[in-house]
Amino acid sequence: MLAIQGMTVQRGVGAQAHKIRLPTLSLAPGECVAITGPSGCGKSTLLEAVGLLLAPSRLEHFQLGTLQHDVAKLWRTDKQSELAKLRARDLGFVLQNGGLLPFLNVADNIALPRRLQGLASESARTTQAVERLGLMPLLQKRPSMLSIGERQRVAFVRALAHEPQLLLADEPTAALDPHSAHDLFALFMEVVEELQLSALVVSHDWSLVRTFGLPRIDAVIVKGETVFEPRV
Ligand SMILES: Nc1ncnc2c1ncn2[C@@H]1O[C@H](COP(=O)(O)OP(=O)(O)OP(=O)(O)O)[C@@H](O)[C@H]1O
């Protein structure tokens, strides 16, 4: 589960500053919400802020899983190692560019989050996801040898490998053809449901958002600041 209240982050400084006020979020286990909105309005920034990659300028409440972390205090006191621990254990990222480590092959990229947690390299879930997404023939290849769409699929399996509390996905299907995009989204939703994770997905693909019936929060710019409004 994820609960956030009163969180603001800022991009840029001075006259260039752009304030992004995050929505009040309350995601139950197994719940996935789509973040939509025009380019440059702050959707990726929202994921970075929720993903503890960007210091908030304001934060009232942040809860991940059953524990309440005083994330505001961790940022205030610059406890980077504590923040890194939370990220590694509780969060799974599917970044726009894949974010795979170039010097590791696909199998080792997928195994990394589990190894960092002291878990076995593989799980039934990762093996099944690798098979479902047609990644078996790619396991020994380095990311530089993969297409962008293949990298996105690998990044998705890596993000779920350690079964985090929260999946954060930035345009996870952007580089995929419609059929592959549907398959990946379907698997995404299954994993969220089965493992009772929470998920935030930035997506421009309205037809997928509609097909899978995701609740939607839309980013809009009001008086130079980004705010988020729930849509039906
Ligand atoms: N590292 C950064 N430093 C300063 N400003 C940034 C940085 N990254 C993004 N921005 C600015 O913050 C604002 C929000 O960017 P962000 O990438 O979150 O938008 P987005 O809605 O995800 O866009 P897109 O749909 O095009 O990916 C933009 O004005 C952008 O120029």
What does this structure look like?
The structure is a single chain. This protein is of the alpha/beta class and 232 residues long. Helix content is 35%, strand content 23%. The chain contains 8 helices and 12 strands. It has helices at 43-50, 71-76, 80-90, 106-116, 124-132, 148-160, 178-194, 206-211; strands at residues 2-5, 8-11, 18-21, 25-27, 32-36, 61-64, 67-68, 91-94, 166-170, 198-202, 216-222, 225-231. It has a 6-stranded mixed β-sheet with strand order 8-9-10-5-11-12. Strands 4-1-6-7 form a 4-stranded antiparallel β-sheet, with no helix packed on it. Helix 7 links the parallel strand 9 and strand 10. Helix 4 runs parallel beside helix 6. It is globular. The two termini are 22 Å apart. The model has no long low-confidence stretch (mean pLDDT 90). It binds adenosine-5'-triphosphate (ATP). Belongs to the ABC transporter superfamily. Pfam families: ABC_tran. Keywords: ATP-binding, Nucleotide-binding.
What bound compounds does this protein have? adenosine-5'-triphosphate
Q: Give the rounded overall mean pLDDT.
A: 90
Beta strands, count: 12
Main sheet properties: 6 strands, mixed
Class by SSE composition:
alpha/beta
Radius of gyration: 17 Å
Q: How far is it from the N-terminal to the C-terminal residue, by CA?
A: 22 Å
Name the helicity range.
25-40%
One letter per element, helices H and strands E, the order comes to EEEEEHEEHHEHHHEHEHEE
- Low confidence ranges: none
